[in-house]
């Protein structure tokens, strides 16, 4: 099939039915739990040079600026969708002011039990007033397959990330998600 025709309407057919559950999650809970997930697809806008960096929660740090938005997360939207390519699950990280900060997709290589346990004690809330990721947000984002790493360093919880080797099925799913979101994959 012609390349342009194969991708025509991908975004329109990408999500055929979805449900979202909103939870209030302190950043520390997110930092503590993300390190258990294994391989995930992480989407976040590239840091803007000179942009103000919010103060991290007490006792939490990140190893690089790409992960800084996670420290501002107050709400998460857990979404399950049935798409033309199969089921998808992702997490939208939303700030107090309603900005979508990052999106994390589960992959076949993700530890699904850790995913379920991550939000076991979270407080359900009504959908916050928020701005969903728009074209500009997605255009500024880059998709990266990674594994979050959490470690303790002199009394601080430090969140880092490293490239992770995943299965060929996982790589295919990550590539399909990036195409459906119109986001470039990091090499």
Question: Which secondary structure elements does this structure contain, and how are they paired or packed?
Answer:
Layout: H1 3-6, H2 10-14, E1 17-24, H3 27-34, E2 38-45, E3 60-62, E4 73-83, E5 86-95, E6 100-110, H4 112-118, E7 123-124, H5 135-140, E8 141-153, E9 156-163, H6 168-181, E10 184-185
Parallel strand pairs: 3-9, 8-10
Antiparallel strand pairs: 1-4, 1-7, 2-6, 2-8, 4-5, 5-6, 8-9
Helix pairs in contact: 3-4
Which features does this protein show?
alpha+beta, 41% strand, disordered N terminus, single chain, 10-stranded mixed beta sheet, 187 residues
3D structure, described in words:
The protein is of the alpha+beta class. Helix content is about 25%, strand content about 40%. The protein is built from six helices and ten strands. The chain has helices at about 5, 10-15, 25-35, 110-120, 135-140, 170-180; strands at about 15-25, 40-45, 60, 75-85, 85-95, 100-110, 125, 140-155, 155-165, 185. Strands 1, 2, 3, 4, 5, 6, 7, 8, 9 and 10 form a ten-stranded mixed β-sheet that branches. Strand 8 (about 140-155) and strand 9 (about 155-165) form a beta hairpin. Helix 3 packs antiparallel against helix 4 (about 110-120). The protein starts with a helix and ends with a strand. The model is unreliable at about 1-15 (pLDDT under 50).
The ordered string of helix (H) and strand (E) elements is HHEHEEEEEHEHEEHE
Overall radius of gyration: 16 Å
Uncertain spans: 1-15
- On the 0 to 100 scale, the average pLDDT is 82
Number of helices in the DSSP assignment? 6
What is the helix fraction of residues, given as a range?
10-25%
Percent in strands: 35-45%
Overall outline: globular
Helices and strands: which structural class? alpha+beta
For the termini, the CA-CA separation is 26 Å
The biggest beta sheet is recorded as: 10 strands, mixed
């Amino acid at each position: 099939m012609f390349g342009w025709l194969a991708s025509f309407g991908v975004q329109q057919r990408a999500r055929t039915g979805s449900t979202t559950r909103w939870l209030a999650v302190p950043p520390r809970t997110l930092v503590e739990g993300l390190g258990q997930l294994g391989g995930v697809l992480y989407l976040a806008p590239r840091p803007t040079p000179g942009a103000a960096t919010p103060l991290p929660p007490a006792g939490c740090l990140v190893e690089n600026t790409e992960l800084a938005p996670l420290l501002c997360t107050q709400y998460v939207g857990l979404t399950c969708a049935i798409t033309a390519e199969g089921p998808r699950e992702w997490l939208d990280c939303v700030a107090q002011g309603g900005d979508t900060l990052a999106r994390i997709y589960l992959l076949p290589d993700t530890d699904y039990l850790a995913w379920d346990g991550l939000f076991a004690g979270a407080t359900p809330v009504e959908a916050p007033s928020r701005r969903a990721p728009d074209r500009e947000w997605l255009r500024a984002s880059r998709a990266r397959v990674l594994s979050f790493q959490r470690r303790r360093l002199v009394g601080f919880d430090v969140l880092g990330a490293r490239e992770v080797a995943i299965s060929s099925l996982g790589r295919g799913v990550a590539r399909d998600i990036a195409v459906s979101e119109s986001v470039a994959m990091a090499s």
